[in-house]
């Protein structure tokens, strides 16, 4: 019986929440995952998980074993990484999560440049506007465009972007250009859904943040789709400048209500704090800082 393997299986069950999710991740059958758990509990002589058809709950012994076992597994991974690093070659897989717009527009060229420098590294990038929980181990780095950070992570600012209001010249010719925030109530708005502010847009009024509820005609969790809709004259959009740069350059969109523009949002590379950082992580973070500074 491989105790380290069984410990790893148990820790992933706790983090992913189901036997089937762990089986899928490890490319094993659910029956095999159950067998590993049974072996572990038998060898320890205690029940680690209370299992029902609908839920899994840690026992007090399971909680203690998970906390200690997770630390041991992290220590082992760090030992292997630090030993491999003695060969002075940066290699391995780095898993990153990025917002759909920022990842799709800016990260692909950045990754291409990084891989030119470190060809033995593989990059797995998932695009999702909902930030992942780094503690479950699914990602090494999470890129965030935000003004709110998890206090339990390391956050390195790699860039910033302004949050502005944009519309197509043709739309403004037909509907008129709003000059005040109150004028927005008479316009068609295109609303980005995945924000902590719900149906509200944020503005700067005399140095203070002000929320305005808009009457949207189209809402989406995809910023690219909303910017395209705005460029087609469907309405007014509030978006980070990084999402609309190409439309501004082509003249398809123009910025309006500049006096109410919010302070710039920071773009962070976030990762868990640990005693040892593998070379693939440190080189990637350092590269992003230099790349986006240029």
UniProtKB/TrEMBL annotation:
Gene3D superfamilies under this entry?
3.40.190.290, Winged helix-like DNA-binding domain superfamily/Winged helix DNA-binding domain
Kindly list the organism's lineage: Bacteria, Pseudomonadati, Pseudomonadota, Gammaproteobacteria, Methylococcales
Q: Give the keywords, sorted.
A: DNA-binding, Transcription, Transcription regulation
Give the top-rank taxon of the lineage listed in the UniProt record for this protein: Bacteria
Keyword Cytoplasm listed: no
Source species of the chain:
Methylomonas subterranea
The UniProt record lists the HTH lysR-type domain at 1-59
> Which Pfam family, an example, fits this chain?
LysR_substrate
Q: Which CDD domains match?
A: PBP2_CrgA_like
Q: Which family does it belong to?
A: Belongs to the LysR transcriptional regulatory family.
Protein name as it appears in the record? LysR family transcriptional regulator
């Amino acid at each position: 019986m491989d105790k380290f393997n069984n410990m790893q299986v148990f820790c992933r069950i706790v983090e992913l929440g189901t036997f089937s999710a762990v089986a899928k991740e490890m490319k094993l059958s659910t029956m095999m995952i159950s067998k590993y758990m049974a072996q572990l509990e038998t060898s320890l002589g205690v029940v680690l998980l209370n299992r029902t058809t609908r839920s899994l709950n840690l026992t007090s012994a399971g909680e203690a074993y998970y906390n200690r076992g997770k630390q041991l597994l992290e220590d082992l991974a760090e030992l292997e990484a630090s030993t491999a690093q003695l060969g002075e070659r940066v290699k391995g897989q780095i898993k990153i999560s990025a917002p759909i717009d920022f990842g799709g527009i800016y990260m692909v060229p950045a990754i291409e440049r990084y891989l030119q420098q470190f060809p033995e590294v593989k990059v797995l990038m998932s695009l999702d506007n909902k930030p992942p929980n780094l503690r479950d181990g699914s990602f090494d780095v999470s890129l965030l465009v935000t003004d709110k950070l998890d206090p339990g992570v390391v956050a390195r600012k790699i860039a910033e972007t302004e949050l502005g209001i944009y519309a197509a010249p043709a739309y403004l010719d037909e509907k008129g250009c709003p000059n005040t925030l109150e004028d927005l109530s008479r316009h068609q708005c295109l609303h980005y859904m995945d924000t902590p502010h719900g149906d509200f847009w944020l503005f700067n009024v005399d140095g203070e943040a002000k929320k305005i509820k808009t009457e949207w005609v189209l809402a989406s969790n995809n910023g690219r789709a909303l910017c395209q809709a705005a460029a087609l004259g469907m309405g007014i959009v509030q978006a980070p400048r990084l999402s609309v740069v190409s439309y501004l350059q082509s003249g398809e969109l123009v910025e309006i209500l500049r006096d109410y523009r919010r302070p710039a949002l920071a773009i962070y590379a976030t990762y868990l704090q640990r005693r040892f950082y593998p070379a693939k992580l440190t080189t990637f973070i350092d590269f992003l800082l230099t790349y986006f500074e240029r």
